[in-house]
Specification:
81 residues; alpha+beta; two-stranded antiparallel ribbon; two-stranded parallel sheet; 3 helices; 51% helix
């Protein structure tokens, strides 16, 4: 959590599953499609942010809006303790 007095800021990233990223990429036109190695690198870098606690990551591909909001709420509550 960042403090910009008097505002507290938490970075929470919503990210699709790795499979969803790959499926979306596969449906793109050839000139817009990224190589799998590029996708993997970007995805792993994003998830690495979680391991380094730069951001909280929520993989929300299989979550409803209500479930996603609940996950965000739990993160914010745990940070305020």
């Amino acid at each position: 959590m960042l403090l910009l007095s008097p505002i507290e800021i938490s970075l929470i990233v919503l990210i699709p599953s790795r499979k969803e990223v790959s499926d979306r990429n596969a449906s793109r036109a050839d000139d817009l499609r990224l190589r799998e190695t590029t996708l993997r690198s970007i995805y792993d870098d994003m998830c690495g942010s979680y391991e380094n606690k730069v951001a909280e990551i929520i993989v929300n591909s299989n979550l409803t809006v209500a479930q996603t909001v609940s996950e965000i709420d739990q993160i914010l509550k745990s940070q305020s303790n």
